Each structure stands twice: as structure tokens, then as C-alpha cells.
């Protein structure tokens, strides 16, 4: 009997050691660490995203931790350093990180309340600014979000260059404000003549009472009876949820499946990028257009 107990205890120890060895070899984290782009107050963002994080963590049997980065580049650096397992990236960030040789896997892309898996990088100005068309921007001041921001950097910069406006030469002054909120408020407070923001924020700002408009007609890039005028917009891929590529492949697939099964009620808690209907599976090929956009942008900047 004692011998049987000894064998049982030994087998249990071997099983536990084997499980931990498998988890280590397969690279499954002990805590699932999420990273978010800086869009609003970090505490508010963390609280709003907690439901999504805990749902996904529950599906893979792991506790979770949510962190809001201080900047766009800080989020990339944190992923590169292995300090995060999943990040809610801007699409241009994902492409930029891939260009740097980082091993990342796009899991899912956000689906907004209109069913879109894309959004628009919008050039905005106040309706009473006297700026009625893109060419009127020449000689004016302008605010972008960040060089690696899709909706507030890469997308609008590319769009302007494509329409014969070179920010380096044609603007009186331009700068990077760091957040979409900061660009929007700089335009509203007349600190700059115009700026670039993602259109996913329009309903969010309207809900918060800081932007007025009757209807957003996306097909015409128009906000009716509103405070701001949209001068033009560049369509860009939606925001992907990206995982470290060195994680276990089966674990990555479980994460992808978990995101796609999150309930509307849980998603409704996170409105930073506007209302969400869900997440849809995505892959690197869905971002090839943006890869080409960055290439064209770099070539245009050389001229």
C-alpha cells in the first residue's frame, strides 16, 4: 500500500512537472497582458476594457492585466520587449512593427456598429475657419496624432501628399499632438487651423457633448449641421488585436476564437473607438494595402 502511494505521489509530481514544462515550452503566459493605445484617460480606458480582457482570459484560463501605453511608440516597444501578450494596435502600428522585423500575429479586427471593418482618416476644420477645400490648407497650421497613427498620421499624411499637399513644405506649421482627442480639441480651440483624426471618434465626441452634428454621412464625408467640416478622408483598415508571434500556435487560435465570441453587452462597455458589434478574424494579407500606402508615402516624401 505504501509503495502504491509512493508511486502515485511520484506520478503526480511527474505530471505537474510535465505540465509546467509543456506550458514553458509552448510559451503560454501565466498572466495575459493586454496593451491599449492612449486615447482617453488611462483609468477610464482600463476600466472599460476590463470586461473584454476578463472574458478572453477566462476562455483560456488565465488572469489578466490591462495597461494603457503613454504613446503609440511605447506600445510597440512594450510588445517588442515581451512585456505584453496582446495589443489593440492601430493598423499602421502593426505594419510599422512588422517592418521592424517584429514577430506579431493579427488576431481579429474590430467591427463597428455599421458593420465596417475599416474606418476613415479624416481631415477636419471648423466650419467657420474659412477653409473650404484641401488646397486652402496651404499656409495654415495643422495637427497630426502621431507618425505611427493610422487615422491621425499615416493615412492623412498619405492622403494630403496624394492631393499635392506636402506638410513639410505647404503648411505654415504642423506638429504631432499624441492623441486624437488632443488634435480634436486643438482644432475646436483654434490652436490649429485643421487636423487629422479617425472618424470612429465622431459618435464618441458627440456622446460626450463636445461635438455637435445631426448626421454623419460617411459616403459623402459630411457631418450635417455640425461644428466641423470634413475636407477629405482616406479609407484605412480597421484596428487589429495583435498577439506576440512566439506564443503557442494553438493558444493563439484559442485567443482568436475567444475574441469572436464576446457578447454585445461586454463589448458595449468599451466605446473608445466608437460602438462595437464584435471582432472578425483577420490575417496579414488584410493589411497589404496599408503596406503599399506606406511605401508610396515614403516615395512621395522624397520628391
Topology summary:
Blueprint: H1 2-26, E1 32-36, H2 42-60, E2 64-68, H3 72-80, E3 86-88, H4 91-99, E4 104-112, E5 118-126, E6 141-144, H5 150-162, H6 167-170, E7 173-176, H7 180-188, E8 194-198, H8 202-207, E9 215-217, E10 222-224, E11 228-237, E12 240-244, H9 249-260, H10 264-267, E13 276-281, H11 288-302
Parallel strand pairs: 1-2, 1-3, 6-7, 6-8
Antiparallel strand pairs: 3-12, 4-12, 4-13, 5-8, 5-11, 9-10
Could you report the average pLDDT, rounded to the nearest whole number? 88
SS-derived structural category = alpha/beta
Strand content: 15-25%
Radius of gyration: 22 Å
* Tally of DSSP β-strands: 13
Q: Total number of helical segments?
A: 11
CATH topology of the largest domain: D-Maltodextrin-Binding Protein, domain 2
CATH homologous superfamily heading of the largest domain: Periplasmic binding protein-like II
CATH architecture of the largest domain: 3-Layer(aba) Sandwich
Large-scale geometry: globular
User: Total domains, how many?
Assistant: 2
Low-pLDDT sequence parts? 12-25
Verbal overview:
The longest helix is centred in the N-terminal third of the chain and has 25 residues. The protein has 303 residues and is α/β, with parallel strands linked by helices. About 5% of the residues have low confidence. It has two domains: 133 residues, Periplasmic binding protein-like II (D-Maltodextrin-Binding Protein, domain 2, 3-Layer(aba) Sandwich), CATH 3.40.190; 120 residues, D-Maltodextrin-Binding Protein, domain 2. It contains eleven helices and 13 strands.
Amino acid at each position: 500500500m505504501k509503495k502504491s502511494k509512493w508511486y502515485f505521489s511520484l506520478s503526480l509530481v511527474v505530471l505537474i512537472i510535465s505540465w509546467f514544462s509543456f506550458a514553458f515550452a509552448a510559451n503560454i503566459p501565466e498572466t495575459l497582458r493586454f496593451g491599449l493605445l492612449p486615447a482617453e484617460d488611462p483609468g477610464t480606458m482600463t476600466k472599460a476594457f476590463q470586461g473584454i480582457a476578463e472574458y478572453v482570459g477566462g476562455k483560456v484560463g488565465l488572469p489578466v492585466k490591462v495597461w494603457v501605453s503613454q504613446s503609440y511608440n511605447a506600445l510597440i516597444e512594450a510588445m517588442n520587449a515581451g512585456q505584453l501578450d496582446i495589443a489593440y494596435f492601430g493598423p499602421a502600428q502593426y505594419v510599422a512593427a512588422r517592418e521592424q522585423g517584429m514577430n506579431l500575429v493579427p488576431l481579429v479586427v474590430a467591427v463597428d456598429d455599421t458593420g465596417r471593418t475599416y474606418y476613415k482618416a479624416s481631415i477636419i476644420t471648423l466650419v467657420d475657419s474659412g477653409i473650404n477645400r484641401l488646397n486652402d490648407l496651404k499656409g495654415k497650421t495643422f495637427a497630426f496624432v502621431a507618425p505611427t497613427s493610422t487615422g491621425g498620421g499615416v493615412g492623412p499624411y498619405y492622403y494630403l501628399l496624394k492631393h499635392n499637399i506636402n506638410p513639410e513644405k505647404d503648411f505654415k506649421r504642423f506638429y504631432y499632438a499624441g492623441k486624437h482627442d488632443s488634435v480634436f480639441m486643438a482644432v475646436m480651440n483654434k490652436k490649429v487651423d485643421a487636423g487629422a483624426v479617425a472618424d470612429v471618434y465622431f459618435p464618441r465626441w458627440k456622446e460626450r457633448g463636445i461635438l455637435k452634428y445631426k448626421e454623419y454621412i460617411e459616403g459623402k464625408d459630411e457631418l450635417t449641421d455640425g461644428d466641423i467640416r470634413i475636407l477629405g478622408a482616406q479609407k484605412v483598415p480597421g484596428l487589429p488585436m495583435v498577439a506576440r508571434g512566439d506564443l503557442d500556435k494553438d493558444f493563439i487560435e484559442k485567443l482568436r476564437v475567444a475574441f469572436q465570441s464576446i457578447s454585445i453587452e461586454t463589448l458595449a462597455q468599451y466605446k473608445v473607438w466608437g460602438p462595437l458589434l464584435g471582432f472578425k478574424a483577420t490575417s496579414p494579407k488584410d493589411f497589404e494595402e496599408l503596406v503599399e500606402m506606406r511605401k508610396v508615402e515614403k516615395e512621395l516624401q522624397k520628391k
